[in-house]
Amino acid sequence: MSETNTPKTGKNGREIRKIVLAYSGGLDTSIIIPWLKEQYPGAEVVCVCTNVGQAEDWEGMEKKALASGASKLYTLDVQEEFVRDYLWPMLRAGAIYEGKYLLGTSIARPLQAKKQVEIALQENADALAHGCTGKGNDQVRFELTYKALAPHLEVIAPWRMWHIRSREQAIDYAKEHGVPIGDISKKNIYSRDWNVWHMSHEGGELEDTWVRPSAEMFQLTTDPRNAPDEEQEIVIDFEHGIPVSVDGISMKPLEMLNHLNAIGAKHGVGRADLVETRLVGMKSRGVYETPGGTILYTALRELEMITLDFDTLAMKNELALKYADLVYAGKWFTHFRNSIDAYMHAAAEYISGSVRIVLYKGNVMIAGRTSPYSLYLEDLASFGESAYDHSDATGFINLYGLSTGVAAIVHDKKLKTDAGPAVEMRAMAGFSEK
């Protein structure tokens, strides 16, 4: 074997003869193919593209991958699995990162990396590669999944190694190496990620946090100003925290999400503009469109409010924050995430019922909620005649406020010198002077 065809050894001492690349068909991952073949002479590059709901030229993708130097391309439609096994558990958990981000990109990466690992093991590959940059979140999400599912495989991250540092340089590299880039140009300023849950937008004028996003940037949702002038009411049914039907029609997970996406997008629902904290520490601005997800989160939250007791709901809210952090950080395949999901599964035992939603010009409004497990008892809550005995509150408040009264007595410096007020305060706290 000639010198140029001698397999290169990886960091773990293993010869790199076959590399499985997470491939999107975009500019970044397309130029990685010839770069890998240059850096690892004689190595075969196998591409894997997972369909999680993004719009792609699926027929032309294989042709593009092969033209770029790949030996083969696997295209995997995992949309149903994505909704059922990833989005629905995340929804049930109520996970929202930093109070605004519904985690559309974050939640897709573990599944995409998992499928890449499965192909790598099937192909008996030596290494895994991805096109994530060295200052983003996705590099962590992909590589934590690699570590969890195939820690023995070499990991290659070109963006942390090569000289390319801009979109313009990437385009130039593609042209130099005969990589087909279609209508990609240096004028396409936005970086977007799209799946069945959401679409994200970064870059361009969004890098100035004072600038309002242009109307032309949005791809999924109608401008609320141009949305229908009439409200639309829908009813969503849940069983154990999982959505099962809309307007009385049972639907499979993917079918339901697509249906709600269409309705929400029509009414301009689900736009979010936020500056988030990346894993590497920097702040980053992103604009997200999540129409169906916004509807579902709003509806499920209302159902929880009538079906969960104080302690269960309080703990669920606390764990939801941690769950969101885990998803954002790519820690999906961890014992901790599984443990939290075990709690969410148990907590959702009684989260079943129906929620009436009204959509109007970007707004999601609650019109009603009902459940056979509702803890709301009209007789108790009513301001009219009820079975509630108001006199019971006196003893409750005396006991509930005992610690508050004790603290007031101890901390009031006047008690040390003024016996009169001390006696009065002790009497107010319910103490006997015997």
* Widest β-sheet, arrangement of strands: 5-4-3-6-7
Helical content (DSSP H or I, runs of 4+): 40-55%
Q: Give the N-terminus to C-terminus distance in angstroms.
A: 101 Å
Q: Which CATH architecture of the largest domain is right?
A: 3-Layer(aba) Sandwich
What would you call the shape? elongated
CATH class of the largest domain: Alpha Beta
CATH homologous superfamily grouping of the largest domain: HUPs
Give the percentage of residues in beta strands.
15-25%
Let me know the largest β-sheet. Answer: 5 strands, parallel
Compute the number of helices: 14
Summarize model confidence as the mean pLDDT.
90
Radius of gyration: 28 Å
Total count of strands: 16
Structural domain count:
3
CATH fold title of the largest domain:
Rossmann fold
Order of helices and strands: EEEHEHEHHEHEHEEEEEHEEHHHEEHHHH
| Unreliable sequence segments | none
> Strand pairing plus helix content: what structural class?
alpha/beta
Structure description:
The protein is an alpha/beta fold and 434 residues long. The chain has three domains: 3-192, Rossmann fold (3-Layer(aba) Sandwich); 199-379, Argininosuccinate synthetase, chain A, domain 2 (Alpha-Beta Complex), CATH 3.90.1260.10; 392-428, no CATH class. The chain is built from 14 helices and 16 strands.
